[in-house]
Amino acid sequence: MAEPNIKKTFFASRTPKNLPKPRLAKIVKDNNDRHILALCKKIGADYLITFDRKHLIPIKNFGQTKILEPKDFIDYLKND
Description:
Elements (H helix, E strand, L loop, with lengths): L8 E3 L19 H13 L3 E3 L11 E2 L2 E4 L1 H10 L1
Parallel strand pairs: 1-2, 2-4
Antiparallel strand pairs: 3-4
């Protein structure tokens, strides 16, 4: 796995709510999460770090973005 680029790591807790919401209804069911994936795509994020186990963690990957819980991301950084 490639070394993570922290500049391209997106932390979901800091997402602005005024981004355009793409048509992601088939990927994520929660309207409040769609803008997060749209931003990941727009900025080319390598990682999305989130606590959202209900909607985002199950997706695992969205394009080039890997979706991880904080503990898994920390483990990845420690083991790499």
